[in-house]
Amino acid sequence: MDVDALYQRHREALLVFLVRRTADTEVALDLWAETFAQAVASQRRYRGRTDAEAAGWLYGIAKRQLALYYRRGHAEQRALSKLGLERPPASDALLREVEERAALVDLRRDLAEALSALSEPVRDAVRLRIVDELPYADVARSLRISEPAARARVSRGLAALAELLDPIAIREATAT
Amino acid sequence: MNLDAYMNDFGRELARADGKRRSRRRLTLALLPAVPAGAALALAVTVLPGGGDVDAVAAARDALAPAGQIVHMKVELRSSGTVVFPMEQWYATNPDRLRTRTQGPVVEGGSTTVETLTQGGRVRFYDARRDVVTELARRRSRRRPA
Q1: What is the DSSP secondary-structure string of A19-87?
Q2: Rounded to a whole number, what is the largest CA-CA distance in chain A?
Q3: How far is CA B20 from CA A43, A46, A83, A134, B119, in A?
Q4: What is the DSSP letter of B122?
Q5: pLDDT tens per residue, range A129-142
Q6: Nearest CB to A36; choose among B9, B14, B108
Q7: What single DSSP character describes residue B143?
Q8: Hey, which residues 26-85 in chain A have their CB within 8 Å of chain B?
Q9: Is the CB of A40 less than 8 angstroms away from the CB of B6?
């Protein structure tokens, strides 16, 4: 398994995949970095031979990370810590570039229209974080809840809006 | 920094971490044959009657050994806060018997755990990775006539 070649082939597409399923560039970058760190840490368990199998294996890791995020409200950093790596901080300009590549503005507009399907506490959290793009600390302050609780509400809301984000991938992710 | 440069940076860090991981693994595999040999040597020096000085673990074991019972000890050697090769020992007297299990690192091909059984000047040595039992007997020393 050549993880470097896998990284070069899929780095951008995987990031877009994760941004479109979280509607949150910071969270997506965390999941993206952890996915590649997991690929490095667990490459000995890979049994495939073809490029397609390698891609399937990588996206399988990403979906597991997504599922954990939907359940817990935060991205894991286990493999990154194990390898002594940190996801580099991203500037505002870089986050905007990620949003553009993933066409996140359109997705945010669609999400804003679909918020009525959610319960009020979850809807408020999703609106503040995803539509108004407030940092989690401000979301928590506005809703008078802790930051982890704010993260959990947003991730639950996104999971509930799966039909918009990516029904098949999210159903697969949350089913594992 | 744009996204491509950001990804290039993280890719380099990832490749470096991968390289470090591979070198550590190569080192572990290179050292593996030394683990059973070292365990057998340490055992021969410290455990077999007349084999050498009694170490602190053996002294503690002797102090705890009531006749007719088995002393079970867990020994941990620490290096920079990390447990290196944790060992368990079972010891009984009359006749003296000692069994040890030393847990080595898990590598491709399975566990590198090593077990030894010492009784009556003989050592049975089990290498879990190779699934091989080796038996060693202590050579009797001949006394020169005065």
Answers
A1: HHHHS-HHHHHHHHHHHHHHHHHTGGG----SHHHHHHHHHHHHHHHHHHHHHHSS---HHHHHTT--P
A2: 51
A3: 14, 19, 9, 39, 43
A4: E
A5: 888 888 899 999 99
A6: B14
A7: P
A8: 33, 36-37, 40-41, 43-44, 83-85
A9: no
The answer to whether B10 contacts A88, with C-beta atoms less than 8 Å apart, is: yes
Query: How many whole angstroms separate alpha carbon A13 and alpha carbon B48?
Result: 63
- Residue A110 half-sphere exposure, CB side, CA atoms within 13 Å? 14
Q: Which two tokens stand for residue A138?
A: 């401000």
Flag if B14 and A11 touch (Cβ within 8 Å).
no
pLDDT tens figures, B33-46: 555 555 555 555 45
Q: What are phi and psi of A146, to 5 degrees?
A: -75, 165
**A172: its two tokens:** 């697969």
- Whether this prediction's pTM lies above 0.95 is answered by no
Residue B100 to residue B61: CA distance in whole angstroms: 12
Q: Which residue has the higher pLDDT, B139 or B128?
A: B128
Render B24-36 in DSSP notation, one character per residue: HHHHHHHHTTHHH
- Chain A neighbors of B6, CB-CB under 8 A: 88, 90, 94
Q: Which ipTM score applies to this complex?
A: 0.78
CB atoms within 10 A of CB A46: 15
Contact A75, A61 (CB under 8 A): no
Q: In this complex, which of A40, A90, A101 lies closest to B18 when CB atoms are compared? A: A40
Residue in A34, A57, A38, A60 with CA at minimum distance from that of residue A46: A57
